[in-house]
Design goal:
Layout: E1 15-29, E2 32-45, E3 51-62, E4 67-73, E5 81-82, E6 87-96, E7 100-111, E8 116-128
Antiparallel strand pairs: 1-2, 2-6, 3-4, 3-5, 3-7, 7-8
Length: 134
């Protein structure tokens, strides 16, 4: 562990996040439509210290306005450590009863060196089947 005067705790503003949603397929299950989407999340750490992704919180809203909150440890079974200047990507999915939905939330993270908590907000993004958009 270094303690030079240049070391600073990580800040959420130096974490960059991008999300790439993708429509996968429409399927019938028990006489109802299900719309399957994937999304790829990329986190880039522009801090001088490593950060660890501890937990996730998603607020998922379908096209009917039904809201579901999902909380869990890590992402895709992992609690990755992202070093300075590194990026981490993962792909996950969601199933909606409508061809349009939205997701937003945040990641609970921790600065490894300074043992400080961080929250990385995930702005709302749309998951939509292409033919439902005008």
């Amino acid at each position: 562990m270094t303690n030079s005067h240049n070391d600073q705790p990580a800040v959420a503003d130096a974490l960059m996040l991008s999300v790439e949603p993708k429509f996968i397929k429409q399927a019938r299950a028990e006489e109802r439509d299900q719309f399957v989407f994937s999304y790829k999340v990329t986190i880039t750490n522009n801090n001088r210290t490593s950060v660890k992704l501890l937990n996730r919180v998603w607020v998922i809203t379908d096209g009917n306005g039904k809201v579901n909150e999902v909380k869990g440890k890590g992402v895709v079974g992992q609690q990755p450590i992202i070093g300075p200047g590194e990026e981490y990507s993962y792909t996950s999915g969601a199933i909606f009863p409508t061809p349009l939905g939205f997701m937003q939330g945040y990641f609970e993270m921790q600065d490894i060196e300074f043992d400080c908590p961080l929250q990385l907000d995930i702005p709302a993004f749309r998951l939509a089947k292409a033919d439902v958009l005008h």
